[in-house]
From TrEMBL:
GO molecular function: DNA binding
Every HTH tetR-type domain range: 10-70
Record protein name field: Transcriptional regulator
Gene3D superfamilies associated with the record: Tetracycline Repressor, domain 2 (1.10.357.10)
A Pfam family matched in the record: TetR_C_8
UniProt-listed PANTHER family: ACREF/ENVCD OPERON REPRESSOR-RELATED, TETR-FAMILY TRANSCRIPTIONAL REGULATOR
UniProt DNA-binding region: 33-52
Entry keyword set: DNA-binding, Repressor
Coiled coil feature spans: none
Length: 188
């Protein structure tokens, strides 16, 4: 019986998150109401409040879920060689492709700047650690490189999403990886 309840809770949370993403594609969070989300999700307001305290709680949990997935992907590789770097980029882009509506929306003008900054911060920390540890790049230089590489990569990914993911995740990873490796080569 508890498994059935868990599945119903999971389903309810999924439709609420999907409804929020759908609305965020057209307007910012401060212009969205719980009533609108419940209407799209086809649930009662009381059901919404059984899961979330307000819209911002729903948004925060959605963002946190994506952030944890990104952290998990980034920390699952050792980056001791170029293949690991390419593999993690492919995995990230596969994740983004699988969650393209959420990712595109959260990185749009209606998305939360704090979410965008958190993703950038996580990627920068991982990149700095990689370059200092495995490429012997001084930390102060690695910080500048990571600012350039991470922000550029995110903009490229945003454009890829806007273009309807016209390249496969592997093809995009190779493009980003090529930019990265050629740019970093001048510092090693």
């Amino acid at each position: 019986m508890s498994e059935k309840l868990d599945r119903r809770k999971q389903y309810t949370r999924m439709v609420l998150k999907n409804s929020l993403i759908e609305l965020l594609q057209d307007k910012p969070i401060n212009m969205i109401s719980v009533k609108e989300i419940c209407h799209i999700a086809d649930i009662n307001r009381s059901t919404f409040y059984a899961h979330y305290t307000d819209l911002y709680d729903l948004l925060q949990q959605l963002e946190e879920e994506i952030i944890q997935d990104i952290k998990g992907t980034l920390t699952s590789y050792t980056y001791t060689n170029e293949e690991d770097s390419l593999a993690v980029t492919i995995k990230l882009l596969e994740y983004i492709a699988e969650h393209s509506n959420s990712c595109q929306t959260l990185f749009s003008e209606h998305g939360s700047p704090s979410f965008q900054n958190e993703v950038i911060h996580i990627a920068q920390d991982c990149a700095i650690d990689q370059w200092v540890t495995y490429n012997n790049i001084p930390p102060h230089i690695a910080e500048y490189i990571s600012l350039f590489m991470v922000n550029g990569s995110i903009r490229v990914i945003q454009q890829w999403l806007k273009n309807g993911m016209d390249q496969t995740p592997k093809e995009m990873a190779e493009i980003i990886h090529e930019f990265s490796e050629r740019g970093i080569a001048s510092f090693t």
